[in-house]
């Protein structure tokens, strides 16, 4: 079973996980672009029971997504990096930005959403099993 640790930039807030992600996805929505400061957000969703430990202090920011879900982002109050978040429609899952793992060998995303807002120069992986949604 895979053991992973996600961390903020300064290392104050960490999440330890045991297990594989349920899904890895890319989101091109404007809110994810603003949240990450990049052209898309990439996140891995894990079963809540696979979260072994959350250490450190976090600040919460809630927003309503385009489809009405309430998303609760937890970020480090020292460096500002988002380390995990939950979505009220999926309480059994915890999402973690893939960059928080600092692991270039992390799994390839299997879903790309809000592609109508994708920057035109971004090339999303294609192949069997990869969903592309507007």
Describe the structure concisely for a colleague.
The N and C termini lie far apart (34 Å). The chain is mainly beta.
Can you offer a commentary on this structure?
This protein is mainly β and 134 residues long. It has a single domain, classed as Metal Binding Protein, Guanine Nucleotide Exchange Factor, Chain A. It has one helix and eleven strands, in the order βββαββββββββ. The strands form three sheets. It has a five-stranded mixed sheet. The chain has a three-stranded antiparallel sheet with strand order 1-2-5, with no helix packed on it. Strand 6 and strand 7 form a beta hairpin. The chain starts with a strand and ends with a strand.
Name the features.
134 residues, mainly beta, Metal Binding Protein, Guanine Nucleotide Exchange Factor, Chain A, three-stranded antiparallel beta sheet, 1 helix, 5% helix, 41% strand
Helices and strands, in N-to-C order?
EEEHEEEEEEEE
Strand content: 35-45%
User: Architecture in CATH?
Assistant: Beta Complex
CATH topology: Metal Binding Protein, Guanine Nucleotide Exchange Factor, Chain A
Number of strands: 11
Give the integer mean of the pLDDT values: 95
Q: C-alpha Rg, in Å?
A: 14 Å
Instruction: Bin the helical content.
Output: under 10%
Tell me the major beta sheet: 5 strands, mixed
Q: According to CATH, what is the class? A: Mainly Beta
Uncertain residue segments? none
Question: Structural class per helix/strand content?
Answer: mainly beta
Number of discrete domains: 1
What's the total helix number? 1
Distance from first to last alpha carbon = 34 Å
Oligomer: single chain
* Coarse morphology: globular
Widest sheet: strand order? Answer: 9-4-3-10-11
